[in-house]
Specification:
The chain has one domain. Helix content is about 70%, strand content about 0%. Keywords: Membrane, Transmembrane, Transmembrane helix. This is CAAX prenyl protease 2/Lysostaphin resistance protein A-like domain-containing protein. One of its GO terms (molecular function) is endopeptidase activity.
Amino acid sequence: MSDPPPAFREDKPRGLRGGDLGDPEERPMSLPLAAVWALSITFLFVWFLAVLVAIRPSAQSDLVSTFGCQAVAYLLGLFGILRLHAPHASIRDFLGIRPTHLAFFPLAVLLGLALEAPIGALYDLIARRWPTPREGELELLNTLASGTAIEQATLGLVLVVLGPALEEVLFRGALTRPLLRRYGAPVVIVATAALFAIAHFQPQKFLPIGLFGLALGMVRYASGSILPAMLMHATYNAVPFVALLGASADVGAAEAVPTDAPRPFDLRQLLIDPASLPPAAVAGSTVLAALLLAAVFALAARSKTATQARHRDHA
């Protein structure tokens, strides 16, 4: 009898097999390099927008055009990070687009709602000491008031869905996994939150947005998936958008009033003012947010699905 044929052996290294965790060719990312990536992508976004405004000045106040420039810059940055740090990785797995325990999703929605009051109050406190221009909010309010239903829906899609998803793909996706290959979760959560804050330009927003970024990072790490963080970010953005949409309806109704009729309101009064919230409401929302974060980590410790998802990040 002839000898049996030798067992089949793959030439592909173990780490590159589809069913295995990890990729030996994935390169860790240092904190300085993460800062370089984030700042370079932000600079590219600003440069694209400056070029567009030079060609078409009206683009400066066009939110959709601004998002288009941001999307191009972020996607180019994502391509560069993938090519350098994980050329053979699955894009979905690298970004953390994976299933997790379903309870993370309602927790993310509630957390996005609960954080609105304390973060808004903190920003208002800072803005009182170092005021910031609100022309952008007023322009958005006027756009919503004068725009068609399609234009309003487009703005909502950008502000509530596409914008948050794009930012999460970069900060809790493309930067998070390579950082986790070198640092522990607390360092990565703080670092990505800081870079997320800096990318929003205004120094008055650094602390409020940084705190929001910390909460997003905690949800992202605890769940092992970027999807709950995306939902939380979208919920957080939806609250002021819905408020502005309601205010724009008031503006539209007021514009129908004859010019000689009294107008007892000011556009600025229609903008969200966290300072008008009772301190008890802000304190209650803060406590609720802390309890929800505790629930997130309790679920993370008990859920096998979340544990497996987190292992994918560390593989």
